[in-house]
Each structure stands twice: as structure tokens, then as C-alpha cells.
Design brief:
Length: 344
Amino acid sequence: MKEEIEQLLSRVNDLKCSSAKEIEEARVALLGKKGEITRLFDEFRTCAPEMKREFGRKLNELKQAAIAKIDELRQGASSENVQEGPLEDLSMPGNPLPLGSRHPVSIVRQQIVDIFRKFGYDVAEGPEIEDDYHVFEALNFPPNHPARDMQDTFFVSVGHPNPLLLRTHTSSVQVRSMESMKLPIRVICPGRVFRNEAISARAHCIFHQVEGLYIDEDVTFADLKQAILLFAREMFGPDTAIRMRPSYFPFTEPSSEVDVSCNICHGKGCNICKGTGWLEILGCGMVDPNVLEASGIDSKKYSGFAFGMGLERIAMLKWQVNDLRHYFENDLRFLSEFDTAVEV
Ligand code: PHE
């Protein structure tokens, strides 16, 4: 046994292996359950009592030497790896992570929110799954009114007097603001809206809006016109002109659609403005007294204006995107175009 111990000790001292796999194999061969040193410990139990002291000491020395050797080899292997690996110089800068870019709709949303914040508007948000009351009824769309067909609706529950549906515009948030906020009210409501439309280059069943509402005493159409003009100049440049065309919405009277002068051809006529020199950007009007009264606001004392615009449309005009579907396909070649377009 003594000889065996000595032989093993010199083998342990001469042990040479470099890879982690070889070191582990050597460890198992010596110290594993069926390893040689483990076997010697088993044999040690049966040896004569007068030999136990000497053999015990030698065996323990062998075991410690084997453990120390394996540790030493492991450290050698890992410090070799460090030298070859990417951590060689810990002061080197890390590998850069590729940065994403903001979605064009988010960029436009932020610009609009920033402009109206400067004018003193707060941002209000509301649920995307709404009830009929907040999307239609409180906005002067009586049941079965043909104006409901202007916004083809996805219903979540039917057969109920106040069914749940996906909001078709964020005017529902304006209703909620009128119900809950103290007067005067100045809010903009950005958010996602849904309409049951066939998907094409010019229409999508999901899109984004920012709608705005201002209610106070003595608010007039002149205030509306001024707010829209200031907004258009901030958004499209200081030389931008606006024109208003009469229109119809159940919740505003009078109602208007607003065009801005084409910022590509500066009014001369090009294929973006289809030769007219004007681009349509939003709908607006004076809040119908019925709408104020439905939310408990005295329409004799207060008046207000509202407006609403589609973000995809504004982004299309800003960057001459010719197909709405690009906004929803998450094609990185499209999305990365807007990296350099961030101007704020
Ligand atoms: N809610 C209208 C729409 O989605 C836009 C609008 C808002 C028009 C406020 C007038 C006033 O089409």
C-alpha cells in the first residue's frame, strides 16, 4: 500500500493536462467515487491497526496533493482562456448594442403632444375597449343614427343597450374628460383606434389619433382657427397656411375640415398634394351644445372647440410615405429610415 501511495503521489505531481475536459477526467480517475485514491481509502479501513497511523497520514497527504494539483491545473486553464478571450483588457469599451429607433408614429405623436403642451393642454388617456355611450351616444350619435356608419365599428359584445366595442375615435376620452375634469378643460387625447375597414395603402383597421378639446366661457370659432393655425405652423413650418372647408360631424356644429399648404411644393402643386397645393390634416368644429349638456356642462355659459387628426396621415405627409401598411409591418428597413428624422 505504501508503494502504491508513493507511486500515485508522483503521478499526481507530474500530472499535465490543459483542457477543462482533461482536468475533469483526471479528477474523476483519482478522487471520483471509483477513483484510485477513493479505492485506497476503502482498503485503508481493512489494514492492520498498527499501520493505520502512518498510512492514514500518507493517504491524507496524497488526497490534499491531488486536490491542490487539480485546483492549480484549473486555474492555469482559466487564466489561459482569459488571455485568449475578449476580456483580455478589462478597460476596453464593451461591445456596442445596436440601438433601435423610434417608430414614426411615436415621433409624430410626441411632436404633437409637445406643441399642445406649450399651449397649456394636458394629456388624457382612456380605454381602447369602450362602451357605446362614450363613443357614440354622449357625442350626439343617437341609436340607429346614420352617422354611425361613418365609423364602421368592431363590437366586443352585442345585444346590450350599451354594448362594448373597440373605440373608433379618441373623442370617447374627451367625453370622459368632460365628465371628470373641472372647467375650463384643455386636453389632448392621443391613442389607438379601430375601424372595420378593408386594409389598403390608404386605410387600415388600426390607426392612431390625437384629438383635442377646449371648453371655457366665450370660446369662439376664431379661437379654434388660431389654435389650428399655430399648431400647423409649429408642425409643418412657420410659412404654413391653413384653409377650412365646411364639413359634418355629429358632435360639432359648425364643423370643418382643415387643409395645410403643401410643404413639399409650397402651394405650386405636386403629386403629394395631387396638384392642389393643399393637404388635408384634420377635422374640427365647435362642440355641439347637446354634447356639453350630455356631460353635465351648462351650454348657455360654456362653449368649446374640438379637433382630431390621424397620426399615420400626418407622418405620411411629413415623410412622404405612400403606403399606410408600412407602419404596421415592422420591417426594419422602413423603421430605421426614421433614425435621422428625429428633430425634437
Ligand atoms: N372624431 C373625429 C374622427 O375620428 C375627428 C374629430 C374630432 C372631428 C373632433 C371634429 C372634432 O373622425
